[in-house]
Amino acid sequence: MKQLKNLIMKAIVYSNFGNTDVLQTAEQTKPLIEPNEVLVKIKAFSINPMDWKIRKGEMKLMSGSKFPKHTGADFAGIIEAIGSSVSNFKIGDEVFGVVKNIMKEGASSEYTAVPSSLVWKKPKNISFAQAASIPIAGTAAVTAIAKMGKINSKTSILVNGATGGFGMFLLQLLKQYGANVTAVTSTKSIEYAKKWGANTVIDYTKENILLQRTAYDIIIDLSGRLGYKNAKKIMKPKSIFLNPTPQPIEIPFSILKNFFTSKKHIVVLSSPGTSHTTILLDAVNNGLDIEISKVFPFAQYKEAYQYAEKGGYIGKTTIEIN
Ligand SMILES: NC(=O)c1ccc[n+]([C@@H]2O[C@H](COP(=O)([O-])OP(=O)(O)OC[C@H]3O[C@@H](n4cnc5c(N)ncnc54)[C@H](OP(=O)(O)O)[C@@H]3O)[C@@H](O)[C@H]2O)c1
């Protein structure tokens, strides 16, 4: 009986698309590992907007409609078992990582089995909740910077929606390039945007950025509310609009559209591999700030998702499992 109990774990799952009401806990069998995988006992996982977009059926083309589904893509925890071909980790290592298929799998359970290539040692100076916040939002920020091309102190960059998970990493990484960054936030987040390196901050509750007389070399829309069509009004003749919230149809269309305009529309998709994560780990070692707005206990998972979906938080929201 005791042995059987050890094979069972609790998980957050859903069996229909919908709002937070569809989320429920379930008992599931602990995953088995392949030779190249590690079994991680999860201590924390982070909430990303992608979680509720998938849960609401807005990304069906990529997520598919197979149920039950887990939620939560990035996690941190302790290695409990290692596959026969894994040599770079040992049982007991504190790690953070991301599930293999972020559209179809989730880390919302007590254990997850993932390839060792998607797990990294947790820096000692950050908590499990902070480490779990890195893979999706952090690597999206690194990818966005790579798509910006050459940037220097003369490059003007508008970050619209600058103090959520993605913006927190982006502002701090951009600071290293000395770019001229304008952050758009609500009133309560102004001090954070400044602290994270913005040269100018615009409060969107008081000013309409489309009515300014400034034009930018690069605009990234993290709020998903500006859109390329509007952004073009405040883009320089040769400039870039970065879109991390594309509709699936926009992905091939953006390539086509760019042949006919010098105001380029470029899609950003995070890629949580080792090269991007190494950049983030270096930044963490150099004091990158990972702000966690709130850590919820596992039992309050519905409240956690409601809190995150309502918005208005700074940095990330995470769930802890004891
Ligand atoms: N493509 C990818 O691989 C990828 C990866 C990660 C994230 N994303 C996407 O990128 C977006 C941002 O992610 P996130 O994790 O940073 O989300 P988030 O934490 O929810 O942040 C969204 C930000 O938008 C701001 N905002 C809300 N209304 C606004 C408005 N009218 N004007 C300007 N800013 C406004 C919010 O500020 P206040 O709280 O101050 O209102 C908040 O700072 C999401 O849509 C997410 O799905 C994409």
Automatic annotation (TrEMBL):
Residues 18-319 form the Enoyl reductase (ER) domain. SMART domains: PKS_ER (SM00829). InterPro entries: ADH-like_N, ER, GroES-like_sf, NAD(P)-bd_dom_sf, YIM1/Zinc_Alcohol_DH_Fams. This is NADP-dependent oxidoreductase.
